[in-house]
Specification:
By secondary structure, the chain is of the alpha/beta class. It is built from 18 helices and 21 strands. The protein has three domains: 179 residues, no CATH class; 170 residues, Rossmann fold (3-Layer(aba) Sandwich); 135 residues. Helices cover 38% and strands 24% of the residues. α10 crosses α11 and α14 packs across α15.
Length: 508
């Protein structure tokens, strides 16, 4: 039975609303802001910042401070302990667990009931709506969708409140209609042991009519390899001949593109990027020929942007007056994104940077993070994590480090990947492999996302250390005309450009 034409008709009005973004962007955003402020006027946060008296965006920007997780942590912890009406009306029962800050292993992002429907699920529905508009030949609803998810646990041992991966929260609260077309089973989808989970996913899905897959590229690749193994197949076309689309997000798709094309050679296969995070759902690739994503303007999220030239090296904003609303952004300029949502995040710096490629409608690309980081596989490794890992290993071995940089090694044909560290030692450790083990173990202790990706070497292998010869980093800086002053080699990068240049010099 093919329900695709019926679903496409159902979504037609919504597609028309999305197409109207180009003409109503400012109006839509100001309506969203007014609604959010009005809803939160009686919360502790709203009373603290005089929401009853806010009449305009200018009032909002003047009275409400820019925030990050550290700024909201105290209020969020009160919410996690069951207090009502703190950052958002009522009691928030769900918290999306994300990678930590400088002081904490994990962040716990509130997911309100309203935010669940009008921010997170809205993005999923619209992704399908836009895809069906772009693919008149689609037979998406003749089969099942393989949706990857994580797990969740009690929050502070409370049976009525949970913390976990956003995907698990979405899975747990999915509508009966979604569950009708989804694989694997809910029990399998929510398993915490990913090794066991992918075994069961392969067993439950290899003989099903899967027409779409959705998830993070790195995790999905690990599942695909297991499905191929279970089916005794070389390509996914042999297993799921009607597979037609991969809805992906979370990490950059570029490093995986060629491997996916090799494993799914079908000419009918489509790839659709989305911008979804623990904090919300923000963008959809609405044109298959354009890698830019459409900014979703009528969800429960109000956007602001800060030019990167007003951002300090530690990711904080040097000049709050430089923050602008959507209608004041410039094309091809790098901005840090700031969000206000119905999950109780107020003028919250999400940490991502974007650049707009169009204003009519507003379309953008994700350009990186406000700080140096590695997030090639969803591990969200920040410099503070790296420094602490090296500090621990040096303390345990007596080693001393002059300089370092690190970057990802992307998947080989066996779907294996790792981080490669180039380290110039002032005093090298006696046992380099033991040193690498110490760094790796410490990173798992302080970063829950890195720990998850390292689980049983499924997604991420143990890091590799390359010893740099004396003076290598200064040589590179000199060659680049950057020796002296404030110039530094980035500690962490998603790109291999710099580390490859350094490795070339190191081999001479």
């Amino acid at each position: 039975m093919n329900l695709t034409p019926l679903v496409r008709t159902f979504f037609s009005r919504r597609v028309a609303a999305i197409d109207s973004y180009a003409d109503r962007a400012e109006q839509l955003q100001r309506t969203v802001l007014a609604r959010l402020v009005r809803s939160a006027a009686r919360t502790a946060w709203g009373e603290r910042h005089g929401y009853d008296g806010l009449r305009s965006y200018e009032d909002f920007a003047a009275r409400v401070p820019l925030t990050d997780y550290e700024a909201l942590k105290g209020d969020i912890d009160r919410m996690r302990h069951g207090e009502r009406d703190i950052l958002w009306p009522g009691r928030v029962r769900w918290y999306a667990k994300s990678s930590g800050t400088t002081n904490d292993k994990s962040k716990f992002i509130p997911v309100s009931d309203r935010g669940l429907q009008h921010l997170h699920y809205a993005g999923g529905r619209d992704s399908v709506a836009v895809y069906l508009r772009n693919r008149p030949d689609s037979r998406l609803f003749t089969g099942r969708s393989l949706i990857l998810g994580g797990s969740h646990q009690p929050n502070y041992d409370s049976p009525s409140s949970r913390v976990g991966d956003l995907s698990a929260i979405l899975n747990e609260n999915a509508s009966p209609f979604v569950r009708l077309f989804r694989v694997p089973s809910k029990t399998t989808a929510l398993l915490e042991d990913f090794d066991r989970k992918r075994e069961l996913i392969a067993e439950e899905t290899f003989d099903k009519n899967v027409t779409s897959i959705a998830g993070v590229p790195s995790w999905m690749m690990a599942v695909i390899m297991k499905v191929l193994e279970r089916a005794g197949a070389k390509t996914l076309d042999e297993v799921w001949p009607n597979l037609e689309v991969f809805f992906h997000g979370g990490v950059a798709f570029t490093p995986y593109r060629e491997q996916y094309h090799r494993l799914i050679p079908s000419a009918r296969m489509s790839y659709m990027e989305t911008y979804n995070a623990s904090e919300g759902f923000f963008g959809i690739q609405n044109d298959p020929a354009d890698k830019s994503m459409l900014l979703m303007l009528d969800y429960d999220v109000f956007y602001e942007f800060c030019p990167m030239d007003a951002i300090n090296e530690d990711g904080t904003i040097a000049d709050p007056s430089k923050v602008v609303p959507l209608e004041e952004v410039e094309l091809y300029k790098n901005y840090a994104m700031i969000i206000t949502t119905s999950c109780g995040l107020w003028r919250y710096m999400i940490g991502d940077t974007v650049s707009f490629t169009s204003r009519n409608p507003y379309k953008f690309i994700i350009t990186g993070r406000t700080k140096h980081f590695i997030n090639a596989f969803g591990e969200e490794l920040i410099v503070d994590n790296a420094d602490k890992g090296l500090e621990f290993a040096c303390k345990m071995t007596g080693a001393e480090i002059s300089d370092y940089t690190a970057a990802p090694v992307f998947m080989d044909n066996k779907a294996k990947c790792c981080h490669q560290w180039l380290i110039e030692f002032k005093k090298r450790p006696e046992d380099m492999e033991a040193f690498a083990d110490l760094v790796d173990h410490r990173l798992q202790e302080i970063n829950s996302d890195y720990e998850a990706k390292r689980y049983k070497d499924i997604t991420l292998q143990r890091l590799e250390i390359v010893e740099a010869r004396k003076g290598l980093f200064n040589m590179w800086l000199k060659n680049a005309g950057k020796l002296g002053g404030q110039h530094k080699i980035p500690r962490l990068s998603n790109s291999r450009k710099i580390i490859d240049e350094l490795l070339f010099l190191n081999a001479k």
